[in-house]
Design a protein that fits this description.
Elements (H helix, E strand, L loop, with lengths): L10 H5 L3 H17 L8 H13 L5 H10 L6 H9 L32 E11 L3 E10 L5 E6 L5 H15 L4 E4 L8 H9 L3 E4 L9 H14 L9 H17 L11 H5 L18 E6 L4 E6 L4
Parallel strand pairs: 1-4, 4-5
Antiparallel strand pairs: 1-2, 2-3, 6-7
């Protein structure tokens, strides 16, 4: 009937069957279609997980959510994530284990980095305590892995405090070969140059007034301010800000999928511990999902327990 566009009233002429037989067959076909689950339908448990991740990270888009699922060994395209979020929210389902009796753009790549600690960037960004008291934060990142090497509030925006922050990162992770900064006074002064000379680090300066000349670290600064600190109603002082920055390093390096790294986390790349990509038929929620709630910013991170 579908192929030759035969109307129902003509079926008995073409097929030589009784009209009652035709309707009995049609009812069987309709019953089968209504009871059969489409092969490409996303399981309800995965849809619930997508909604939970979205609620816990309200600033994330569909691509970042798809990357987070990939880290949990679940394959779901960004378009499928969009379709799930456009539909009504499914009934809440718990992610707890069934108690087993408890269970950046091209400009940002203008200076290539070929291995960890090859190229670093350093910059300062300003935030406000209690909405009125400005405090500078020194941020240092590794270009190859996008790992935040340091995020330290400064008691003063002078070269001495910046040297302390950079020196602590070098003692912890080792010295880079190159370091990129803007042409601010603290980065072109003798005090900062003395520290670079001590560790034989070659300085690289971004262009004056050119947007994107230090785009890699500018992107991290925006993540720190608008995706992390914006979740806090008031920053109550430098001690509170220090705690927030320490949590930011943990969240950014260990829990947050990075778009530039195709959904991997910075520590996965820095320590060369990249998880296998999920297969296209990976459509079940693993039982070993670990969740971590960052109480200051009310953000929840997700990863597999084995990757901890």
């Amino acid at each position: 009937m579908e192929t030759f566009q035969i109307p129902r009233c003509r079926v008995t002429e073409h097929l030589g069957i009784a009209i009652s037989t035709l309707y009995r067959w049609l009812h069987k076909i309709q019953d089968q279609d209504s009871s059969r689950v489409p092969a490409n339908k996303t399981p309800m448990q995965i849809a619930s997980l997508v909604w939970e991740i979205t609620k816990a990270n309200i600033s994330w888009g569909r691509f970042r959510i798809a990357n987070q699922l990939g880290l949990l060994n679940i394959f779901l395209s960004a378009s499928a994530v969009r379709n799930i979020l456009n539909r009504p929210k499914p009934p809440k389902q718990s992610l707890s284990q069934p108690k087993p009796k408890k269970t950046e753009d091209e400009q940002s790549r203008s200076i290539p980095a070929w291995y960890p600690n090859h190229v670093w960037s350093i910059d300062t960004t300003m935030v406000y305590c209690w909405g009125c008291w400005p405090i500078d934060i020194c941020v240092v990142i590794d270009h190859y892995s996008r790992k935040v090497m340091a995020a330290v509030p400064l008691e003063g925006p002078n070269a001495g405090w910046i040297n302390n922050a950079l020196g602590s990162a070098i003692e912890k992770y080792g010295a880079p070969k190159h370091i990129i900064s803007d042409q601010g006074g603290v980065f072109i002064g003798e005090v900062f140059a003395e520290l670079l000379g001590k560790y034989n680090i070659k300085p690289r300066l971004g262009a004056i007034g050119k947007h994107g000349s230090i785009a890699v670290i500018e992107r991290v600064n925006k993540t720190l301010k608008y995706e992390w600190l914006k979740q806090v109603a008031f920053i109550k002082g430098i001690d509170h800000l220090t705690d927030l920055c320490k949590e930011f390093e943990i969240w950014y390096n260990n829990w947050r999928p990075n778009m530039t790294l195709e959904g991997l986390r910075p520590d996965d790349v820095y320590y060369n511990n990249k998880p296998d990509k999920p297969k296209r038929d990976a459509k079940t929620v693993p039982t070993n999902i670990e969740q971590h709630y960052f109480c200051h910013t009310r953000i929840t991170g997700y990863r597999l327990t084995k990757a901890a």
